[in-house]
Design brief:
Number of strands: 10
Order of helices and strands: HEHEHEHEEHEEHEHHEEHHHH
InterPro entries: Glyco_trans_2-like (IPR001173), Nucleotide-diphossugar_trans (IPR029044)
CATH superfamily of the largest domain: Spore Coat Polysaccharide Biosynthesis Protein SpsA, Chain A
Number of helices: 12
Strand order of the largest sheet: 3-2-1-4-8-6-9
Organism: Winogradskyella endarachnes
Radius of gyration: 22 Å
Shape: elongated
Distance between the termini: 54 Å
Oligomer: single chain
Strand content: 5-15%
Largest sheet: 7 strands, mixed
Structural class: alpha/beta
Pfam family, one: Glycos_transf_2
Number of domains: 2
Helix content: 40-55%
Family: Belongs to the glycosyltransferase 2 family.
CATH architecture of the largest domain: Alpha-Beta Complex
Keywords: Glycosyltransferase, Membrane, Transferase, Transmembrane, Transmembrane helix
């Protein structure tokens, strides 16, 4: 009985931690409205690094070219592709004077390292304000660049945006991927709003060339093949230089992975970089995940033995209420309302998958950048 009592009090502590986290997320970001004031259009360079992305470039590059923006160039970086990527880039460049090409040849020292290719693209850019997206991403509107660039200021040198995934009907995997994306965005937007930014996504982010070179670019983690977006932002973002852009017009949209195997490999790469975050971010992110895992573990255990079940149900209800409010407001903001009712089931599947990925990464290193 003593052990059960200890587990019960541990459950109270876990629920308290979860409620504190979700309340912080709710108040800092979930209920906030997006700012839509568009400023004078700054000269920007859009950097797109592509490796074997010929078909995606055909589909998505016209949407970038058709931005309602008066002063921008597109820097296309061919990262040693083996398909027709370079040919497609050259075709677009021949018809559009604002496209600049960077053809990265295979380099033994930096083989398979996207950061090397991105660095060459940044060096080739003509403007100080840089906007980043991927070849498999399409802007959600013709105002994408206008919204992202409007958040730059004398103090702001980083803009983090939202990279959504396209919906696919009757696909549980697609819902898992979109739910994980919403939860990740909820956290990195909330932490940035709380003045402790820790990451952005390369599908939709921006920063200045001056910031990049003043911080020696990717030099501090060039040997880590992933993390060109989150590790760099984790290193250089602070309480005053980071802005949030989450208006619907500013989203980018990508096609999600279609097999669990491909998605797991992608998540293994992403999770492997988290151990290199600043200590305070590792502690906060680790505490949130552990409290999620313990919430489900202790809920199931205590309910199965029937110990003080009325209190257990009450605490579970309290936690789910604040979680649903937080996820509900956020999902509505990101146009992912179909995920709200499924949130508990998606969360349970996601945290168990993340646990298996963590164990897998301890056993072997994940594969990086195509």
């Amino acid at each position: 009985m003593a052990l059960i009592s200890i587990l019960f009090y541990a459950f109270i502590a876990v629920v308290t931690i979860q409620v504190i986290f979700y309340s912080s997320f709710l108040l800092s970001f979930a209920i906030k409205r997006a700012e839509t004031r568009l400023k004078k259009q700054l000269p920007v360079s859009v950097i797109i690094c592509a490796k074997n992305e010929a078909e995606n470039l055909k589909k998505n590059l016209p949407l970038v070219l058709n931005q309602a923006y008066s002063n921008f160039e597109i820097v296309l970086v061919n990262d040693s592709s083996s398909d027709e990527t370079l040919d497609i880039m050259e075709t677009f460049a021949s018809k559009n004077s604002n496209i600049k090409l960077v053809d990265v040849k295979s380099n033994e020292t930096f083989w398979g390292n996207k950061k090397y290719a991105l660095t060459l693209g940044i060096k080739a850019s003509s403007n100080d304000f840089l906007v980043f997206t991927d070849a498999d991403c399409s802007p959600a509107s013709s105002q994408w660049l206008a919204h992202i660039s409007s958040h730059f200021s004398n103090k702001t040198s980083i803009v983090i945006g939202y990279g959504a995934y396209a919906k696919k009907k009757f696909s549980f995997l697609n819902k898992i991927i979109r739910f994980e994306t919403v939860m990740t965005a909820l956290q990195y937007f909330s932490y940035a709003k709380l003045k402790i930014p820790y990451m952005g996504v390369g599908r939709n982010m921006a920063y200045t060339k001056e910031l990049f070179f003043n911080n020696r670019g990717f030099n501090n983690h060039m040997n880590i093949k992933s993390g060109d977006d989150d590790l760099f932002i984790n290193e250089v973002a602070n309480s005053s230089n980071t802005a949030l852009c989450f208006s619907k017009e500013s989203f980018t949209i990508s096609e999600a992975k279609t097999t669990f195997g491909a998605w797991l490999l992608q998540k293994r790469r992403h999770i492997s970089t988290a151990k290199l975050y600043k200590t305070k971010h590792q502690i906060l992110l680790g505490l949130f995940y552990i409290s999620q895992l313990l919430f489900w573990t202790l809920s199931i255990l205590l309910l199965s033995i029937g110990f003080s079940w009325q209190w257990i149900v009450l605490l579970i209800g309290l936690r789910f209420t604040i979680q649903w409010l937080c996820i509900g407001f956020t999902a509505k903001k990101f146009e992912e309302k179909d995920l709200i009712l499924l949130a508990p089931f998606l969360e349970l599947f996601l945290i168990t998958t993340q646990l298996s990925i963590f164990i897998a990464n301890k056993i072997s290193k994940p594969i990086h950048w195509k």
